[in-house]
């Protein structure tokens, strides 16, 4: 395997930022939907909104997600699409 330093740093950043089952589930969900509200994500993942908001805001702060407000709702979308590729690579690992 021959990864450049830049690629290694990007992969390490993605892994650190998504290193939680809820965060991985958020990425997988948003990979299949253009955008979702916090309420939609909470219902689909069966995760309490306060805990979900913590994960979402951290991922937004790191540049993985983007968000915008429409009325009372905040909608999230994937900003860094490479995250999906990294998770898909991990999903194909034979040792998992």
From TrEMBL:
The keyword Transcription regulation applies. It comes from Hymenobacter koreensis. SMART domains: HTH_ARSR. It comes from the Bacteria. The keyword Transcription regulation applies. SUPFAM superfamilies: Winged helix' DNA-binding domain. This is Metalloregulator ArsR/SmtB family transcription factor. Signal peptide: none annotated. Residues 3-96 form the HTH arsR-type domain. Keywords: DNA-binding, Transcription, Transcription regulation. It holds the Pfam family HTH_5. NCBIfam families: HTH_metalloreg.
């Amino acid at each position: 395997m021959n990864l450049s330093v830049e690629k290694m740093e990007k992969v390490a950043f993605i892994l650190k930022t998504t290193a939680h089952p809820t965060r991985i589930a958020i990425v997988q969900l948003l990979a299949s939907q253009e955008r979702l509200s916090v309420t939609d994500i909470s219902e689909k993942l069966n995760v309490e909104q306060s805990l979900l908001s913590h994960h979402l805001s951290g991922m937004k702060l790191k540049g993985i997600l983007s968000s915008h407000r429409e009325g009372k709702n905040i909608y999230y979308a994937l900003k860094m699409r490479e995250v999906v590729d990294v998770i898909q690579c991990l999903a194909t690992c034979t040792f998992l």
